[in-house]
Write a structure and sequence with these properties.
The complex is a heterodimer of chains A (93) and B (251). Chain A has 93 residues and is mainly β. Chain A has one helix and eight strands; from the N terminus they run E-H-E-E-E-E-E-E-E. In chain B, the strands form two sheets. Chain B has a six-stranded antiparallel beta sheet with strand order 4-3-6-1-2-5. Chain B has a five-stranded parallel beta sheet with strand order 9-8-7-10-11, with helices on both faces. Classes of the chains: A mainly beta (93), B alpha/beta (251).
C-alpha cells in the first residue's frame, strides 16, 4: 500500500471533525499503533479524508488505526487499530 | 507533553470578509470579522464551510495567518485550479460576503512565546502561512526567541508575504533564508535547490541548543525535511509537522 499519494493529510486536518465529538483536543494526544506498536501524537499520523469516512493510518506502518464516519445524524468511530490514547489534561481556563 | 487547549463546543460562526489582499498570482489573504471569535494560538487552523444554493456543502481546513493579538482573523489561501473551495475563496469572494468558519482547532502545531529555545521554521509554498503566524506572534509579544525561517519556493514571484519577510529578516533574532527551486532573482547567490540534509546542516540551529522545528508544506517536503532534521541530530519530539492539507488540501 502506498501512503504517498496526493490525498494524504495528517492528523492536524482531523482536528475539526474530532472537535465535533470530543471536548478535548485529541490531535495533541499520543496514540499507539495496534499494528506495529509505534507511538506518535495523533496530529502526526496519516489521515485520508476524501472518502465517505475519515481514516487515520499509522505514519510508520500504514495500519488503519481509526475510522470516523459521519452521517444520518450519527458518528461511527472505529478504533480497533490502536491500543491506547494518552490524552493531555486540558489547561485550566 | 503539551497541554491541550480547552475547547468549548465547536460551532460554526459567520465570518464577514472585511478585505482581500492579493499576495501572489495564486494566493490572497482574506481578512475576516468574526463575531465572538474566541482567540487562537499561533499555528492553529480553522475549518471553512461553503454552502451552495442547492444545499451542497464543501469544507476545508486553512491555517490562520494572523497573530493572536491582531484585530481580525486572516487566512491566506492558495488557489488550486482543480480545487472546489479555493477558486471560490480566491477569485469569487468579495468584501462584505459571509462564509462559515469554525475553530480554532489543533493544539499540536502551535508555538507559544516564552520557551527560549531557538526555533527553526521550514516552509514549502503556502506552508509558510502558520509559520508566519508564529513569527508575527513573536514580534507582537516582544518575545526574544531566536527564529529562522527556511522557505522553499519555485520562483521569487511565488513567495507569499515577500515584503514582510524581507522586513523581518535581520531583525534582532530573526533570519529568513529562501531557496528557489525553478527560477531565481537576477544575481541570486543563495540556495537554488530543494531543501536537503546539507542545507539543513548549514541553516538549522544546532540540536545541542535545544532547538525545536516546525515544518509545513507538501507531504514530500515535510517528510524529507523531517528525515533531514533527524539526520542532523534533532530528536523526533523536537520536530512538529503539518502536511499541506490545512493550507490547501484538495482545494
Amino acid at each position: 500500500m502506498s501512503m504517498d499519494d496526493d490525498r494524504r493529510l495528517d492528523g492536524n486536518a482531523a482536528a475539526g471533525l474530532l472537535g465535533e465529538i470530543f471536548a478535548v483536543d485529541l490531535t495533541a494526544a499520543r496514540c499507539c499503533c495496534g499494528g506495529c506498536g509505534a507511538t506518535e501524537q495523533l496530529a502526526a499520523e496519516a489521515v485520508y479524508a476524501a472518502g465517505p469516512g475519515t481514516v487515520m493510518r499509522c505514519v510508520h506502518c500504514g495500519h488503519a488505526m481509526a475510522v470516523v464516519v459521519h452521517g444520518g445524524g450519527r458518528y461511527w468511530l472505529g478504533v480497533s487499530g490502536m491500543t491506547w490514547l494518552e490524552i493531555p489534561e486540558p489547561a485550566p481556563a | 507533553m503539551e497541554r491541550a487547549a480547552v475547547l468549548g463546543r465547536l460551532t460554526w460562526r459567520l465570518a464577514e470578509v472585511a478585505e482581500i489582499v492579493p499576495e501572489t498570482a495564486r494566493a490572497a489573504t482574506l481578512v475576516f470579522e468574526v463575531d465572538g471569535w474566541p482567540g487562537h494560538r499561533a499555528g492553529q487552523h480553522v475549518d471553512v464551510r461553503l454552502t451552495a444554493e442547492d444545499g451542497y456543502q464543501a469544507q476545508r481546513s486553512y491555517s490562520i495567518a494572523s497573530a493572536p493579538g491582531e484585530p481580525h482573523v486572516r487566512l491566506t489561501v492558495e488557489r488550486l485550479d482543480d480545487g472546489e473551495v479555493s477558486p471560490y475563496l480566491v477569485g469569487e469572494l468579495r468584501p462584505g460576503d459571509r462564509i462559515e468558519i469554525r475553530g480554532p482547532v489543533g493544539g499540536y502545531f502551535v508555538w507559544e512565546p516564552g520557551g527560549g529555545e531557538p526555533v527553526l521554521l521550514v516552509a514549502g509554498g503556502s506552508g509558510v502561512v502558520p509559520l508566519a503566524a508564529m513569527l508575527r506572534r513573536r514580534i507582537e509579544t516582544g518575545d526574544r526567541t531566536p527564529m529562522k525561517l527556511l522557505y522553499s519556493s519555485r520562483a521569487p514571484e511565488d513567495v507569499i508575504y515577500a515584503a514582510e519577510l524581507d522586513r523581518l529578516d535581520g531583525l534582532d533574532g530573526v533570519d529568513v533564508i529562501h531557496t528557489f527551486t525553478r527560477s531565481q532573482p537576477d544575481g541570486w547567490s543563495g540556495y537554488v535547490r530543494r531543501i536537503d540534509e546539507a542545507m539543513l546542516a548549514a541553516v538549522a540551529w544546532p540540536a545541542s541548543q535545544g532547538a525545536r522545528a516546525f515544518v509545513c508544506g507538501p507531504t514530500r517536503l515535510v517528510e524529507s525535511v523531517a528525515d533531514g532534521l533527524l539526520a542532523v541530530g534533532y530528536g523526533p519530539a523536537a520536530v512538529r509537522t503539518e502536511r499541506f492539507g490545512p493550507t490547501g488540501g484538495e482545494g
